Amino acid sequence: MTKPIIFLQRAFREEFIDKIHAIAPDYQVKTEITPEEAAAVEISVGWSEKFNEPLLSTNQLKWVQSISAGIDSLPLAEFSTQNILLSNGSGIHALSISEHIIGVLLGYYRGLNQSVKNQEQQLWGQNTIHYDQLAGKNLLVVGTGHIGQQLSRSIHSLGVNVYGINTTGHPVEGFTETYSIKNLAKIVSGMDIVVGILPGTQETYHIFNSDIFEKMKQDAVFINVGRGDTVHTKELITALTEKSFAFAALDVFEEEPLPSDNPLWTLPNILITPHISGLTVDFQNKFMQIFLANLKAYVTTNALSRNQVRLDRGY
């Protein structure tokens, strides 16, 4: 009888392959598969659209471990219909993204962004530098999961007051107060900084729109490191053009790469980064801590122990 396959859709170091074999000796581990072997794939680590048909047509696939935290591009309806377990990489990027956000804020408030531009022109330009103090600012984290909690821990030492938005408004450790997402439009008016860290779902699609932007403080900062489609791009462009709020920093976009003719490129009050906030040192080790823990649980109980995604919710 052919052993079931654990299909790794990206390469991992040999030390991790050995650990997979030790935990699941009754499985084959492959990084490439033939069409015939697709019928034996029971566990897929990572997902690519090109494997939708071969892997989903056999009804042998039981579990997908997403490499990223975001899973909105995966065929969730098909996973649900076939009762396929799904887990994600949530938490791996928490420290990296938190540091990115803090870097963006310090760059803006301490005039570093403008100093870089001045340096390119060999311009001293001290009187052109915008500066402010990060300490004492009210920061709203829209999405109080792993990343939001890490951001709260990291930025508290800088004297920032951190508030949170989540689905129900339930309290989360590290946040001064938390509010329900339905109250977002009411809360943003009192915040100096609004950070989007939301998954891409039907409920979060274009949640950051003109209604939100128009209610923000005129000197407020908006940062998005969640999913690109949580922001209504056209309405953001209008808000930045009309200076409804002061500054935006976007690391994710509705269309990536961001087209060269998109008006966002030409606006003076925005920082664009090419989806780099999640780049993480020692990624393989951090990812494997999640996958190997889940693999141990799966081979003994057919259940998962970490980061299981609710397919009906999309996160």
Automatic annotation (TrEMBL):
Stated family = Belongs to the D-isomer specific 2-hydroxyacid dehydrogenase family.
Tell me which InterPro entries the record gives: D-isomer_2_OHA_DH_cat_dom, D-isomer_DH_NAD-bd, NAD(P)-bd_dom_sf
Species for this entry = Enterococcus dongliensis
* Alphabetical keyword list: NAD, Oxidoreductase
- Occurrences of domain D-isomer specific 2-hydroxyacid dehydrogenase catalytic (ranges): 28-303
- Oxidoreductase recorded as keyword: yes
Q: Which residues form a coiled coil?
A: none
Q: Does the keyword Acetylation apply?
A: no
Out of the domains of life, which is the source?
Bacteria
What protein does this entry describe? Phosphoglycerate dehydrogenase
Q: Domain D-isomer specific 2-hydroxyacid dehydrogenase NAD-binding spans what residues? A: 103-277
